[in-house]
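Appendix B: a complete holo record

For completeness, this appendix reproduces one full record from the ligand-bound portion of the collection. The bound molecule is zinc ion. The inputs are the chain sequence and the ligand SMILES; the output is the full three-dimensional arrangement of the complex, encoded as structure tokens. No fields have been trimmed.
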Amino acid sequence: MGGEFDLVIRAARVITGGTEAACGIGIAGGRIAAVWPLDDAARADGPDGGLGETAGRPAVLDIDPDVVVLPGLVDTHVHVCEPGNTEWEGFASATRAAAAGGITTLADMPLDSVPATVSTRALDIKRRSARGQCAVDVGFWGGVIPGNAGALAPMHEAGVVGFKCFLADSGSADFPPVGSRQLTAALRVLRPLDTPLLVHAESAEAAAAITHRGGRGYADYLAAHPRGLENLAIAQVIEAARATGGQAHIVHLSSSDALPMIASARREGVRLTAETCPHYLALTAEEIADGATAAKCSPPVREAANRELLWAGLRDQILDLVVSDHSPCTATMKELSTGDFGTAWGGISSLQLSLPVVWTEARRRGFSLADVARWMAERPARLAGLPGKGRIAPGCDADFCLLAPDESFVVDAGRLHHRHPVTPYDGHTLTGVVRGTLLRGRPVDLERPRGRLLTRAAGLMPAGGRTVRCESW
Ligand SMILES: [Zn+2]
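The structure of the chain with zinc ion bound, as generated:
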């Protein structure tokens, strides 16, 4: 039996089936072929008791007892910015940072590159620029903008993992926001395709009534981006999803006010999911110094009390997933020298750090690594229609993150793989060191990229050899 595997991993701590257990993992052809408990000595080397004495004996990787084997993380909210703005980030640098941070799959947002991914032609251009550069697997979101409703089904057919739209100014002229009727129309088009619409939910109408003159004060920036902008837009998304039966997903939720609304809509059967991001779970408005524009993002980081309510939202499973919203730019665009919150780029760079940032805060609140794996691997994979990703289970890709969860380090922004050494976590002490990352059963080599470009609902070949589609939410 053991001869069927190319590799066997044995570890005292494996996150599988929603819990942590001592396991053996048999890998064949880059996929997980079997997972078995290690507490049974007779089965210590394989599901049938022994790796066999014949030729073809697999390699065995014994994991240090202080290291936990997690599924490779899946980050469905990354702005790679290539082609067109490759000086901000790019497929090579972003996927190296991802791999170093334990992420084995990322999904690229459809804006901040040129062209924006709003047609099959633009998707082709993006795929061509990514090919051969990616250290981890990469999927692509398609964009919904005014006037491209006819392009959605063809982009779905071409394999985007889902769609994204804005209800407020995106900051990119070639990615304008949609109005209420266009939001509803897009959900109607996407419903029969069984693919989600991710929504940047801030109200353009309410934002237009607020003036912010800029400057270094964080309190002024926060006051110009009140929770109501999110609350209003999320209510609109809920009603559009209710009316159409379409599947909507709220990206980067910051306003905890919206949690009861989301919970009640879901109880009523509205197909709605929501994510938050490491910065909303770790940073607080009280601690962001005036002029500290590395922490500028939209919606903004809010007060400490809001942060605790977001943690409660994760505990209550109203928030489904945690993804980075890695949104990089050059140091100049971040206005670090002037510290002007009005003109600085709104976006936080944290791709390589998202796991230790979340784990540092999660463990202090009594959450487990199984919780973290659910938020940062299993649920994002499900959102993006990638059933072969995000879990340690037979049939899934053999993607793993090897984490030393009790080890700490001090962040040195200059040593991250991000293109620019700008992150609000510079100098922070974080817990959880990624010791290694495996992609399809082999350690990721940052100099030899072998990441694949993914399409929705591809990838899982369980024991029966049948492709299983992701169950709907
Ligand atoms: Zn984003």
